[in-house]
Amino acid sequence: MTNPPPECSVVRLGEASYCYHYGTFYLYDSGLKGYKTVSAPPGIFVTYLPDARKATYVGGVRYFTYADVYYRAVYVGRDLVFQVVEIKR
Prior knowledge:
Layout: E1 9-13, E2 16-21, E3 24-29, E4 34-38, E5 45-46, E6 54-58, E7 61-66, E8 69-76, E9 79-85
Antiparallel strand pairs: 1-2, 2-3, 3-4, 5-9, 6-7, 7-8, 8-9
C-alpha cells in the first residue's frame, strides 16, 4: 500500500506515528516507500472504535474487542479514548 486511507487519524506512540482507520493501523515503511498494515501497538490511544466492536469482561474489567485486539476505555482529561492493551490468558 502506498498511502493509507485519506480519512485516517494520525496517532503516536513514542516516536512512531501511525495512521489509524476503523481498527486498522498503518505505519510508513521507508524500504517500501509506502505504508503497510501493522499489528495494533500495545499502549497506543485511539479516539474511536468501529461500530462492530464487542464489549467483554476479563477479570471483572470491561474491555472492547475488535479484530482480536483488546481496548480499554479511559479518560484523558475530559476525552474518552481507547487504549490498546495486551490481555494475558
